Amino acid sequence: MIDLLVLPLIKIVFVLTGVLVTVMYLVLLERKVQAWVQVRLGPMRVGPHGVLQPIADVLKLFIKEDITPVRADKWVYTLAPIIVLVPALIAFAVIPFGPEVSLFGKPVPLYLTDLNIGVLYVVAVASIGIYGIILAGWSSNSKYPLLGGLRSSAQLISYELAVSMTLVAVILASGSLSMVRIVEAQRENGVWFAFVQPLSLFIYFVGGLAETNRAPFDLPEAESELVAGFHTEYSGMRFALFFLAEYANMIVVSAIATTLFFGGWLQPFPNVAALKFLGFVPGWIWFVLKTFVLLYLFLWIRATLPRYRYDQLMRLGWKVLIPLALANILVVAAVKVALTR
Amino acid sequence: MGQAIAFYTLAALILGFAVLVITAKSAVHSILFLVADFLFVAGMYVLLGAQFLAVIQVVVYAGGIMVLYLFVVMLVNLKRPPEAHQDRRRRGRLGLLFSLVVFAELALIAVYKVASPASLVPPSAPMGPNNVEQVGWLLYTDYLIPFEVASMLLLVAMIGAIVLARREA
Amino acid sequence: MTPITPAHYLILSAALFSIGVIGVMLRRNIIVIFMSIELMLNAVNINLVAFSSQVQNAVGQVFAIFVICVAAAEAAVGLGIILAFYRNKETVNIDEMSLMRW
């Protein structure tokens, strides 16, 4: 009974709290990193060095007036932010934060569940998140959100194909769809998949940038284009949900890249005898560190690269990334067959 | 016991949302109800032990085909509702009667199959954890030719859709 | 409580199929008619998977995957036709799609 109900509930509470707090501070981190790149300081007033800024932001969004546009479809308008946020959060159900540890005498696996179709589950959940954006654009009953919503969702659908194909390459190399099994495969091989298939990592990361509407692919939602795109008409708590969802999606993409390409909870350099002390660091700390390195890469790219125009964006997705991903699958499959002979 | 609760809940939700699909006034609402329906059908597949098919249902059906429907509905958004014209030649109640006849016929077959003593119908049990391997094995050995033909079909459909929906420039 | 036999799934699938048939018969928006056809295809899929579970063989699921493939192809082409027709006649009401009728 405890194993069936209480333990998963505790894990869910932990994961959700962790994700929401991380999202709040990721917003602050983004503003700070962008500021430092641009030789300024970022938020400094609220708390020492602006550390309490997220709390001020949350408070502001809570007390803002809740506006619904005239003649907007009320149910769909309310439902859209929820449809965007929920898939971003439930994707954490299959991400393995660490191996089995023994807590209070019982072996507790540090992941919510180990689905035998874990990787496909993440793809499925991502494809449901697209609806929220289309519906947000449509239900606002206004030109800019509709255009922004259609553009954004078309971008998401296009890059979802390239991302799914790189996941196929990883599945080929590891032989299983289960996330935990993929990490185990990286441990058995002794080398992370990032070094075995660097092209897969590159395509996945670029696709992940596009999937989360992040720079340089943020044309559909940037403030200077299309008047903030599909969430133009949203304010207050609903906008907060969109914001949350975008950063939660970023964390999901980074967490999956960590699991599939960077060994999840495994320590770096397991074969080097001089670095054996790294084995004392618990697995989940490695996971968090690697995820944060990838998140920093997201922020760094936003501060550095200019924005793609929409037609350049679509051309990149369909004419460059998808053929590359297909060629990648061919090469990985050929190498795998050659190695098993 | 848990399986029975899950089955009846999912079945009620599936049929309820299906009725909402065909009776909703706005086409966008119909699409949303159908997407919810597909998600519950995917839940039904998981109950039957077909996890791979459940995820394929969500990715392809709910996440791909229905997005296509949604785009088309937004592109043909009309000022007057499409049901405004009442065609004289329509026999609505006759259509309803025929559908009920179809349902009665199908239900009768199902009940007859159960009631006849020769068929021992065992309870539906899920099939084991390596569902993906089983399906993959079948797809690549016994049913390889239909698999390749299906990919040809999708290619042809893709080209056809692009040609049909293209704006003459 | 009686265990859930494939007969339960058959009746569910029959009900879903007839709801789809009602949708095709009664609605006049052609996109809703297409969606009712998708309902019917799903009913068939539930049937296939229920029998696959009874016989403990994954062939039913393979068949269901092909049904989903064909449904995707049909939806793409069908919606292309609807778009092309809409550009000409500005309507999605099938009662007005009677160019070739008497």
CATH class term of chain C: Mainly Alpha
Q: What is the helix tally of chain B?
A: 6
Order of helices and strands of chain B: HHHHHH
CATH homology-level superfamily of the domain at 1-78 in chain B: NADH-ubiquinone/plastoquinone oxidoreductase chain 6, subunit NuoJ
Low-confidence stretches of chain C: none
Q: Shape of chain C, please?
A: elongated
- Count of extended strands of chain C: 0
In this structure, how is the largest beta sheet of chain B organized? Answer: none
The total of helices of chain C stands at 3
CATH architecture of the domain at 1-78 in chain B: Up-down Bundle
CATH topology of the domain at 1-78 in chain B: Four Helix Bundle (Hemerythrin (Met), subunit A)
Strand fraction of chain C equals under 5%
Radius of gyration of chain C: 17 Å
Shape of chain B: globular
**Mean pLDDT reading of chain C:** 88
- Summarize the biggest pleated sheet of chain C: none
* Oligomeric state of this protein: heterotrimer
Beta-strand proportion of chain B: under 5%
Q: Care to describe what's here?
A:
The complex is a heterotrimer of chains A (341), B (169) and C (102). Chain A is mostly helical and 341 residues long. Chain A has one domain (64-340). Chain A contains 11 helices and 2 strands. Chain A has helices spanning 2-37, 53-63, 74-90, 118-139, 143-174, 179-189, 193-196, 198-211, 237-261, 283-304, 310-340; strands at residues 100-103, 106-109. In chain A, strands 1-2 form a two-stranded antiparallel sheet. The radius of gyration of chain A is 21 Å and the shape is globular. The mean pLDDT of chain A is 87. With 169 residues, chain B is mainly alpha-helical. Chain B is built from 6 helices and no strands. Chain B is globular and about 50 Å long. The model of chain B has no long low-confidence stretch (mean pLDDT 84). With 102 residues, chain C is an all-alpha fold. Chain C has a single domain, classed as Helix Hairpins (Orthogonal Bundle). Helix content of chain C is 76%, strand content 0%. Chain C has helices spanning 6-26, 30-55, 59-89. In chain C, helix 1 packs antiparallel against helix 2 (30-55) and helix 2 runs antiparallel to helix 3 (59-89). Chain C is elongated, with a radius of gyration of 17 Å. The model of chain C has no long low-confidence stretch (mean pLDDT 88). The chains are: A mainly alpha (341), B mainly alpha (169), C mainly alpha (102). The interface between B and C is large, with 86 and 75 residues.
